[in-house]
């Protein structure tokens, strides 16, 4: 096994940005001393055990809590009626205020939280929770996204958009629909162009529902305080939690304090608001600290990744140029919108792929179903889209007899050309990523195609992503009187290495060693606002804010020196500067940085905008695979992942992010799938839901960041955490067709799916008996 | 987990006495890994567990005789066998199987007796031990008896043990030159339960198969000998033709079930292919590749 | 409620006692009685290895191991490895190889690697992968973990040679 990154990236003048700094929290992590929220114990703390719905859609007729409440050691059993005494309108959510803190007369999926048993002993809460009986009147349920879009089974009576997003306003109060967002993009005249095309190709692709499975299971602890409330939570978005809790409680923000530690993984599962409202309400209801901690199983009932159906149609001219593309994407959002409508639009507008196409018609719809809710998962919907458009691209190339790389080269979207939205591409190294990927895998070289029952193939795929916009980051840099430096930022380090990268930016600007910079954990009483740690936005947005804050501090230090009459570039040590100013070791210099990029919202009717994103992320994957023709087993023997991450701040961390993202998407490609039976997840555990182990991943993995600069990014950098997820799935499917001539159109790619496709292709379909 | 009582008797006989055959919520526990999984998921909610960990030390010991027969107490941990040079030499198939059997930590804790009494059809050791011709000793209130592994597994999580009866020991006969192999076939990830397990054991002289045992697991409800496939090999010359005949016979006879690891028709194909591969693996030294 | 009992065992080299109930696991007792959080429960099924501790030298899954069974044993956790702020060879190798991201699974991988290198001082990649297949890393840091194990093996082997010469 090997990972190799080309070390062609520059080290900045002060030797901090561009250096392989080991994570600042390395010692804490290898010694087991990292203080995850998981570890928190507060005096008098109660443990919550959630009683969950056993039906997919139903009215709650009664909840029998008496027997559970009578168990010795049970503090109380809490239902939605009790929550209402604290929060009269107990509905939350980032895009729609549609999710009740506890089920409110109705349940909409199996696993929804119905009531809570509290005890000082988690085992007692666990045992008592089994004694709660809930009577339901079952209602018809709908699970499939395409069916739900037109079904007369409605998951919600009316739509309740949050009001923060202008493009959701028209949905306010809408009845008799499961469609939570209908985004449309119209560029040119696709229908007319199809009529002129030499070839038209149309394919359907689907992806399955999967789960993030962060290893620190989701946890929030609420604690009543003399001034209000503190929420300790493993969250990717502490600022959002505070704002949303303030809205629910009708309190000013400053009465709510939200603190996070380093997270044991997030991947989008811990975004916006999840368990926090429940933990807060329970703490205020009981007047005691309450710990709401999920098991691995319960995470599957909390947030997932959208299953999708994507119908894609392309018209190609005689030269192999794509002249028209139509995309119809259905996103299975589950029972509550979470951030699904944002995924539908913010990722949906890239559904036609990184290609230069004059005529595009695109519809992307978020659909409610009676499944566990879906939100953001590493890629914010992009991997589902790339799966379809890059499988489709390969099929077109084969269909017109053109080499798949040559076909992409011919149609690729280059800097200076407009994307389908009308935004002109800038600092998007799409052609460079494609070329480096092809070169690295040796696309033009001879390839051993195998013999007998082992057949070999190669595949390539490329995808891109816009950044969620517009969003704000604020940072504070504090220089203490001894010259030591502290960074206050609400970016959450969940393993991606953001603390270290941000410290490198501070250190580069102030010319101090990164290792000496202290990064304060997000705490809304202390660290300033940040929209959230999501969508690979932090390096760019917070990175810019941090750079501005550090530059502000530096300027203030320079001003201080000038004020003291010191000549410019006198290079007096900072502690001497403070001593001169205050007569002793005293005082601070505080630098502040705030960053929000420019942005233009897409037109409601056409979906067009000339400034749709502050930067683009690009990722491509090439693989070599072996197919066992007797069983359909696919072995990826080599995987190359190439990304445009701008200029890496920390090449080693970038390398690990690239291979880590690819490994995660490899699981979503080959083995992971939430199995559902009448809405019940039947494999909600790592014993039955299989994520990749060290034995499963390709023996050869190579990562590369192309030489590129994001001119608007801090030191040329931009986001990196998701880009290597984009190409993995279609590259593998494309390689399978290359090896054995069959096309897989649904994820995951199981050995059985491949074997069945091969039998069908041989006109000997595997008979079911 | 729900609170329960724990008894830790100092003798095996006492443990047997403490188990109430009429009470399904009172059970013996040794390594406890499988039991803990059932308890944590709420599938099994014990009122009392009787731990075997403090019984006489001979139950946690094993011997390999000079001719290569294994006698092991029920409390011998799988990791003990894995690390024994004598066991590895006498049963190369076990040395080959342990690394794919669950994981290091489970093997450090799980015991021979617990593994076999659990009777989960997905486990790797039962088919291998069946192919090796192993027996267990069962000890209950009315004494001890010997049960061949071929008779032990009666169905999905069901054994021939009477209520109150515990596995007290395992014996595996000397292999006298028999060739054995195990193939674990997974369909989702390497650390998944197998979709199919195939264990084979063969007696060969010259180029001829004198006797064959072929056991399927995981794809079927309980580890099962494939007698038709065995018959197809008896007296046959070593080679692909015989292997394929055995694979076809096994695929025809096996009562394969569908689950998330594959449909029945697909797993039937896996049987067809992997019986052949297991035979090749067992006889690789005989030039059968 | 089940009755509490007192167990005695050796924890990271020191004799200790703890009041436990029969249904308490090793992870719970380490966290609640001793404030040791390096072994932690994630999957709850012994598959991810986040709860790895060593009992009488052998790695076990602390989330599937009843605390009652610790009576009279020697228990070692990840907290025992670094001495006086100096990481063990394996811990240092994990840092240098960048072999973790979120860090939740890291103590488990390190405890397994410590034992692996005692049993097999010069493991090949196949052995490393099989030995560590019972530990999962959701951040997908596997390539770096293999590199860390190889680095630690090399360092330990060099230290042995130095000692011998």
UniProtKB/TrEMBL annotation, chain B:
Residues 1-177 form the FAD-binding PCMH-type domain. One of its GO terms (molecular function) is oxidoreductase activity. InterPro entries: CO_DH_flav_C (IPR005107), CO_DH_flav_C_dom_sf (IPR036683), Diverse_Substr_Oxidored (IPR051312), FAD-bd_PCMH (IPR016166), FAD-bd_PCMH-like_sf (IPR036318), FAD-bd_PCMH_sub1 (IPR016167), FAD-bd_PCMH_sub2 (IPR016169), Mopterin_DH_FAD-bd (IPR002346). It comes from the Bacteria. Keywords: FAD, Flavoprotein, Oxidoreductase. It holds the Pfam family FAD_binding_5. The keyword 4Fe-4S does not apply. The keyword Cell inner membrane does not apply. This is Xanthine dehydrogenase family protein subunit M. It comes from Xanthobacter tagetidis.
Automatic annotation (TrEMBL), chain C:
Keywords: 2Fe-2S, Iron, Iron-sulfur, Metal-binding, Oxidoreductase. InterPro entries: 2Fe-2S-bd, 2Fe-2S-bd_dom_sf, 2Fe-2S_ferredoxin-like_sf, 2Fe-2S_ferredoxin-type, Beta-grasp_dom_sf, Diverse_Oxidoreductases. This is (2Fe-2S)-binding protein. It comes from Xanthobacter tagetidis. One of its GO terms (molecular function) is oxidoreductase activity. Residues 5-81 form the 2Fe-2S ferredoxin-type domain.
């Amino acid at each position: 096994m090997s990972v190799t990154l080309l070390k062609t990236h520059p080290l900045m003048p002060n030797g901090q940005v561009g250096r392989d700094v080991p994570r600042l929290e390395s010692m804490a992590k290898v010694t087991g001393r990292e203080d995850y929220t998981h570890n928190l114990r507060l005096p008098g703390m109660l443990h919550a055990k959630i009683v969950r719905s056993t039906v997919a859609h139903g009215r709650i007729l009664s909840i029998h809590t008496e027997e559970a409440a009578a168990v010795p050691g049970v503090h109380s059993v809490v239902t939605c009626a009790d929550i209402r005494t604290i929060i009269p309108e107990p509905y939350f959510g980032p895009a729609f205020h549609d999710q009740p803190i506890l089920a409110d007369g109705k349940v909409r999926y199996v696993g929804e939280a119905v009531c809570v048993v509290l005890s000082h002993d988690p085992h007692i809460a666990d045992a008592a929770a089994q004694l709660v009986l809930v009577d339901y009147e079952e209602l018809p349920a709908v699970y499939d996204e395409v069916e739900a879009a037109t079904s007369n089974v409605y998951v919600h009576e009316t739509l309740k958009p949050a009001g923060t997003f202008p493009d959701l306003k028209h949905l306010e109060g809408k009845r008799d629909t499961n469609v939570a967002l209908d985004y449309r993009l119209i560029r040119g005249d696709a229908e007319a162009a199809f009529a002129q095309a030499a070839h038209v190709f149309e394919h359907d692709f689907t992806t399955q529902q999967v789960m993030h499975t962060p290893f620190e299971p989701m946890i929030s602890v609420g604690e009543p305080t003399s001034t209000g409330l503190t929420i300790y939570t493993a969250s990717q978005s502490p600022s959002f939690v505070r704002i949303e809790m303030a809205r629910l409680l009708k309190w000013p923000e400053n009465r709510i304090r939200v603190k996070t530690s380093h997270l044991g993984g997030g991947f989008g599962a811990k975004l916006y608001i999840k368990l926090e409202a429940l933990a807060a309400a329970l703490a205020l209801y009981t007047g005691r600290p309450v710990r709401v901690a999920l098991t691995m199983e319960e995470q599957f009932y909390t947030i997932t990744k959208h299953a999708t159906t994507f119908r894609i149609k392309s018209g190609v001219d005689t030269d192999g140029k794509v002249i028209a593309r139509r995309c119809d994407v259905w996103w299975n959002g589950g029972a509550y919108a979470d951030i699904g409508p944002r995924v539908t639009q913010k990722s949906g507008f890239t559904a036609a792929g990184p290609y230069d196409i004059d005529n595009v018609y695109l519809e992307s719809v978020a659909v409610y179903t009676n499944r566990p809710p879906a939100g953001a998962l590493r890629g914010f919907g992009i991997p589902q889209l790339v799966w379809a458009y890059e499988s489709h691209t390969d099929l077109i190339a084969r269909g017109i007899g053109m080499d798949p790389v040559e076909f992409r080269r011919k149609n690729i979207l280059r800097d200076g050309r407009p994307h389908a939205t009308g935004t002109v591409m800038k600092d998007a190294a799409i052609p460079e990523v494609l070329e480096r990927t092809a070169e690295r895998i040796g696309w033009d070289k001879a390839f051993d195609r195998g013999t007998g029952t082992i057949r070999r193939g190669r595949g390539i795929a490329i995808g891109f992503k816009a950044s969620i916009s517009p969003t704000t980051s604020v940072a504070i840099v504090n220089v203490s009187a001894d010259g030591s430096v502290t960074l206050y930022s609400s970016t959450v380090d969940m393993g991606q290495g953001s603390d270290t990268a941000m410290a490198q930016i501070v250190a580069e600007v102030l010319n101090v060693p990164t290792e000496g910079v202290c990064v304060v954990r997000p705490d809304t009483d202390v660290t300033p606002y940040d929209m959230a740690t999501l969508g690979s936005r932090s390096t760019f947005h917070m990175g810019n804010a941090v750079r501005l804050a550090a530059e502000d501090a530096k300027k203030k230090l320079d001003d201080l020196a000038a004020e003291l009459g010191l000549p410019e570039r006198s290079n007096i040590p900072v502690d001497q500067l403070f001593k001169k100013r205050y007569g002793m070791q005293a005082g601070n210099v505080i630098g502040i940085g705030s960053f929000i990029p420019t942005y233009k919202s897409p037109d409601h009717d056409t979906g067009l905008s000339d400034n749709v994103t502050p930067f683009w992320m690009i990722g491509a994957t090439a693989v070599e695979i072996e197919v066992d023709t007797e069983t359909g087993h696919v072995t990826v023997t080599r995987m190359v992942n190439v990304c445009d991450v701008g200029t890496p701040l920390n090449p080693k961390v970038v390398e690990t992010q690239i291979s880590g993202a690819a490994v995660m998407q490899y699981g979503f490609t080959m083995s992971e799938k939430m199995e559902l039976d009448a809405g019940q997840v039947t494999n909600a555990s790592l014993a039955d839901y299989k994520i990749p182990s060290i034995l499963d991943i390709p023996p050869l993995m190579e990562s590369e960041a192309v030489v590129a600069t994001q001119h608007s990014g801090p030191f040329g950098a931009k986001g990196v955490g998701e880009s290597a997820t984009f190409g993995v799935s279609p590259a593998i499917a494309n390689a399978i067709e290359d090896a054995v001539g069959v096309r897989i159109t649904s994820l995951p790619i199981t050995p059985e799916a491949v074997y069945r496709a091969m039998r069908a292709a041989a006109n000997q379909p595997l008979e079911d008996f | 987990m729900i609170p329960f009582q724990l008894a830790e008797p100092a003798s095996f006989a006492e443990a047997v006495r403490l188990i109430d055959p009429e009470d399904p919520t009172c059970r013996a526990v040794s390594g406890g890994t499988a039991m803990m999984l059932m308890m944590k998921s709420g599938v099994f909610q014990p009122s009392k567990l009787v731990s075997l960990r403090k019984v006489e030390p001979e139950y946690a010991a094993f011997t390999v005789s000079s001719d290569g027969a294994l006698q092991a107490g029920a409390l011998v941990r799988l990791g003990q066998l894995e690390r024994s040079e004598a066991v590895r030499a006498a049963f190369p198939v076990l040395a080959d199987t342990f690394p794919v059997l669950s994981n290091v930590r489970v093997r450090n804790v799980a015991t021979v007796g617990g593994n076999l009494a659990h009777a989960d059809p997905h486990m790797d050791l039962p088919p291998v031990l069946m192919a090796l011709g192993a027996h267990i000793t069962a000890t209950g209130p009315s004494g001890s008896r010997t049960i061949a592994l071929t008779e032990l597994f009666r169905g999905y999580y069901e054994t021939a043990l009477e209520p109150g009866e515990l596995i007290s020991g395992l014996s595996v006969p000397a292999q006298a030159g028999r060739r054995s192999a195990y193939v674990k076939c997974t369909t989702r990830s390497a650390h998944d339960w197998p979709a199919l397990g195939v264990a084979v054991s063969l007696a060969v002289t010259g180029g001829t198969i004198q006797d064959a045992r072929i056991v399927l697991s995981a794809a079927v409800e309980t580890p099962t000998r494939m007698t038709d496939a065995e018959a197809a090999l008896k007296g046959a010359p070593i080679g692909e033709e015989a292997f394929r005949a055995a694979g076809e016979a096994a695929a025809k006879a096996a009562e394969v079930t569908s689950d998330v690891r594959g449909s029945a028709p697909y797993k039937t194909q896996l049987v067809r292919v992997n019986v052949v591969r297991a035979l090749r693996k067992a006889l690789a030294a005989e030039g059968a590749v | 409620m089940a009755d509490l009992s007192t167990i005695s065992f050796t924890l990271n080299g020191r004799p200790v006692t703890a009041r436990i109930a029969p249904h308490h696991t090793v992870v719970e007792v380490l966290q609640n009685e001793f404030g040791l959080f390096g072994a932690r429960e994630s999957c709850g099924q012994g598959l991810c290895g986040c709860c790895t501790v060593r009992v009488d030298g052998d790695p076990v899954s602390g989330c599937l191991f009843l605390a009652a069974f610790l009576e009279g044993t020697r228990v070692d956790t990840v907290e025992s490895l670094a001495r006086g702020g100096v990481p063990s060879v394996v811990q240092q190798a994990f840092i240098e190889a960048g072999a973790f991201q979120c860090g939740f699974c890291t103590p488990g991988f390190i405890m397994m690697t410590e034992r692996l290198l005692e049993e097999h001082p010069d493991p090949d990649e196949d052995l490393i992968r099989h030995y560590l297949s019972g530990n999962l890393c959701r951040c997908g840091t596997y390539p770096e973990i293999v590199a860390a194990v190889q680095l630690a093996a090399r360092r330990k082997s060099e230290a042995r040679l130095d000692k011998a010469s």
